[in-house]
Amino acid sequence: MIHIIKANANHVEGIAKVCSDGYWATYKETHSEAYIEGIIKDFYNHDRILKEVTETSKEWGGYFVAVEENEVIGAGGGGLVGDRSGEIFVLYLNPGRRNEGIGTKIVDAITKQQKEEFNATEQWVSVAKGNQKGIPFYEARGFVLDHERDGHGNVDGESYISLRYYRKI
Ligand SMILES: CC(C)(COP(=O)(O)OP(=O)(O)OC[C@H]1O[C@@H](n2cnc3c(N)ncnc32)[C@H](O)[C@@H]1OP(=O)(O)O)[C@@H](O)C(=O)NCCC(=O)NCCS
User: Largest Cα–Cα distance of the chain, in whole Å?
Assistant: First the structure.
């Protein structure tokens, strides 16, 4: 049985693992190793995730996790980027557990929070150009491409294009 719940301090190690493993699996063909290692070090370290599960606000609604037999198999979260605009900031799964509907359940939980608690009426997500493990998922969930922009994060002078997708919620 898979449960989607709001993450707490007990889930920090599990979130770090699915996000790091998921990041490697997603970007190893398109991004350099140094870039991937830099992102994982900055974003998916224990201290940062502990803060992110304990200090939440409208701008960062905290992590939601998919848990099966006490193991974190997926994690995601988002927050408001404008008055009525939500965004999914992060979404990763155990790479062996894709296409079982788990990502949809996590996105549904984030979306419910953004609509009901934060009054969002639209939702955004940034996806790296060429990320064929993410783009078809968002398109299947009704997101449409709005525009391109230079990827945020710049490690060793590398920068990647990201695509901004959008949907009404
Ligand atoms: C994106 C991700 C979280 C989605 O979670 P998931 O549990 O695999 O997705 P689900 O099983 O809930 O849904 C998959 C949907 O995408 C669609 N889909 C998946 N791959 C597809 C493909 N190659 N072509 C067309 N549609 C595809 C499926 O048809 C399905 O839609 P449906 O339910 O309408 O049939 C997961 O695949 C993942 O971890 N990807 C790598 C990390 C990533 O890219 N994260 C996003 C970074 S912004």
Answer: 44
